[in-house]
Write a structure and sequence with these properties.
Blueprint (H helix, E strand, L loop, with lengths): L2 H8 L4 E2 L5 H7 L7 H7 L2 H13 L3 E3 L7 H5 L7 H16 L4 E6 L14 H18 L3 E7 L2 H14 L4 E5 L13 H11 L3 E5 L8 H10 L4 E4 L6 E2 L5 E2 L4 H14 L3 E2 L7 H12 L1
Parallel strand pairs: 1-10, 2-3, 3-4, 4-5, 5-6, 6-7, 7-10
Antiparallel strand pairs: 8-9
Helix pairs in contact: 3-6, 4-6, 4-12, 6-7, 7-8, 8-9, 9-10, 11-12
Length: 291
């Protein structure tokens, strides 16, 4: 897919993404405290089932579960030499799940290491890490790329530059921000749009952290400066803590759809769900968006 083709698709109406992956797989039986990417590669059935459900619910794009399949994150599991195997395998599984009817996005995120001067990671190394993963994703046949749950504008810039150096696939970018629109390690949602669109990002927005109600002003502010589609992929409300210490979300699919519809009215062009959402949330959202 070319960037122009992505813009054409987004211009036809609100573009629907998928919802959460990790929490849904845990609900289906994926064990805790494992390398998710490696486990899915060896146990593809649950992901195939989940992504088929997202496709049936109305998702036009699903994220391949390559989220942390970069060599720095994989090193924590002694799998740093498995970047090619895991990314290729996971893209193939997603493609098997949705075929050619739904677009597959190669997913990448922060490495967990901070860029200088906040941390020890040099920009050149991070660039190389992203180039390695993106090259494999492109060769595996993804339709587009997404850098999601990013923690600063600076690291997202590096990801966009890496994508441009490796391939010509469109790249969506979403940062995770607080209720005031600020990213944890630098920059704001508005600054992200201004900076990343000039570097060639195909769409820019926010995901995770908060629920749709907290994003209305943020989305409206992003839309004011956006030359590209604005993305909103919120959680199912704000996280809550149960008596046993576990985190849960209590927003229901119908409530979620109503609130995300308001984000569309505020300017969001591409929408989906993050933590706490499921195919049921996307199905309700599809009804709200498409009448």
């Amino acid at each position: 897919m070319k960037k122009s083709e992505f813009q054409e698709l987004a211009g036809k109406g609100t573009l629907l993404l998928d919802g959460a992956t990790g929490s849904c797989l845990k609900a289906k039986g994926m064990p805790a405290n494992i390398c998710v990417e490696d486990w899915i590669s060896s146990n593809p059935e649950l992901l195939i089932e989940l992504q088929k459900e997202y496709a049936a619910a109305g998702s036009q794009i699903v994220y391949a579960p390559t989220f942390s399949a970069n060599r720095i994150s994989l090193k924590k599991h002694e799998l740093e030499n498995e970047v090619e195997r895991l990314n290729s395998s996971l893209v193939a599984i997603s493609r098997k799940a949705v075929g050619s009817d739904v677009l597959v996005a190669g997913d990448l995120t922060t490495t967990g290491e901070l860029l200088e001067p906040l941390g020890d990671m040099e920009e050149e190394e991070l660039f190389d890490v992203y180039c390695q993963q993106i090259r494999v994703l492109a060769e595996a046949g993804v339709d587009l790329l997404v850098a999601e749950t990013m923690l600063s504008v600076a690291e997202t810039e590096v990801a966009v530059k890496a994508a441009a150096a490796v391939c010509d696939l469109p790249m969506m970018c979403t940062l995770t921000v607080s209720e005031n629109g600020r990213a944890l390690f630098g920059g704001t949602a508005v600054e992200a749009v201004e900076t990343l669109q000039e570097l060639g990002a195909a769409a820019v927005g926010v995901n995770c952290s908060v629920g749709p109600e907290q994003l209305q002003t943020i989305v409206a502010d992003m839309k004011k400066v956006a030359k590209v589609p604005v993305i909103a992929k919120p959680n199912a409300g704000l996280p809550k803590t149960a008596a046993d210490g576990s985190v849960y979300y209590d927003m229901q699919p119908e409530q979620f759809a109503v609130q995300v519809k308001k984000l569309i009215e505020c300017g969001a062009d591409v929408v989906g769900g993050c933590c706490g959402t499921s195919p049921a949330f996307i199905a309700e959202l599809a009804k709200a968006v498409r009448g």
